[in-house]
Design a protein that fits this description.
- Strands 3-4-5 form a 3-stranded antiparallel sheet. A 3-stranded antiparallel sheet has the order 6-7-8, with no helix packed on it.
- The radius of gyration is 22 Å and the shape is elongated.
- The N and C termini lie far apart (about 60 Å).
- The protein is built from 9 helices and 8 strands.
- It has 2 domains: about 1-75, no CATH class; about 115-274, no CATH class.
- It is about 45% helix and about 15% strand.
């Protein structure tokens, strides 16, 4: 009877860790200035706890380090509060910068841009010369396909649209939905985060392009670029505008702010403008 009890304890322990874990703020997505600041707070509280008893100090630091490793921060709402706090303090220096999580498309073999444009032109998807635009027929079909995407099965739809076998799973946090896509082996190095609007737009684009006779490899490669033509959010229907993408901790880093297309209503980025 002891073995099942041990298994139950292990499962309960894993459940606790999973409930605390925040992969969108750890690993490659970790903001090191936030991590360092939170670590400093943990150490400070540990020093104060040592006044009471060394054992309490060790316990506080151990718990703090564990939470920091699993979540990326200890102080609640750090990713939201830090940019505002540092802005009030006038600390919007480039040191406080964070490389945003990899937000890509469905993914597939790289295809030369000229090849993509030529294929879309031949299929009647793009019109115009130097000023490219979507053909009215394709724009109409694409928007219909966006409406038809099953939001509840979005992860499966993303996996089905990919050129090569991938794993896709849904991740909900802070009221937002992400589709995390990795290569078939599930390697973290290949991890791509698709926001809900991007996943919807790209799945619909691939489906519509394939219906027009465009090769799947070309369709997947073209999906991200087609988002540049969106005038409303594929998810909430809000107006898409050109703006700048803020960085973590109130800074943009040495390269400056990204110029992006984002939804005014849900504040989700849809494309980065070069």
């Amino acid at each position: 009877m002891r073995k099942p009890q041990a298994t139950g304890r292990k499962r309960a322990s894993n459940g606790i860790f999973e409930s605390v874990r925040r992969p969108e703020y750890t690993g490659a997505n970790r903001c090191w200035p936030c991590t360092v600041a939170n670590a400093g707070i943990v150490v400070g509280v540990g020093i104060l706890a040592a006044i009471v008893t060394p054992l309490l100090s060790i316990f506080v630091v151990a718990v703090g380090v564990t939470i920091l490793a699993l979540r990326g921060y200890v102080i609640p709402y750090t990713p939201r509060v830090a940019p505002r706090l540092l802005a009030l303090l006038g600390l919007e220096a480039s040191f406080f910068s964070h490389t945003e999580r990899t937000v890509g498309g469905i993914g597939g073999d790289s295809v030369d841009g000229d090849t993509v444009i030529a294929a879309l032109g031949e299929a009647g998807v793009l019109t115009g010369g130097e000023e490219l635009a979507l053909s009215p027929d394709f724009a109409h079909d694409w928007h219909n396909a966006i409406d038809d995407v099953d939001r509840e099965s979005l992860a499966d739809a993303v996996a089905d649209a990919a050129v090569t076998p991938v794993q896709a799973r849904r991740f909900d946090n802070d009221g937002r939905t992400w589709i995390i896509v990795t290569d078939e082996d599930g390697s973290v190095a290949s991890e791509r985060w698709l926001s809900r609007p991007i996943a919807i737009a790209d799945v619909a684009a691939v489906r519509t392009l394939k219906e027009t006779g465009v090769d799947t490899r070309i369709a997947v490669a073209a999906a991200a670029s087609l988002r540049l033509f969106l005038d409303e959010c594929p998810d909430c229907g809000g107006r898409v505008v050109e703006t700048t993408g803020d960085g973590c901790c109130g800074g943009f880093g040495p390269s400056g702010p990204d110029h992006v297309l984002a939804c005014e209503d849900c504040d989700q980025r849809l494309a980065t403008l070069d």
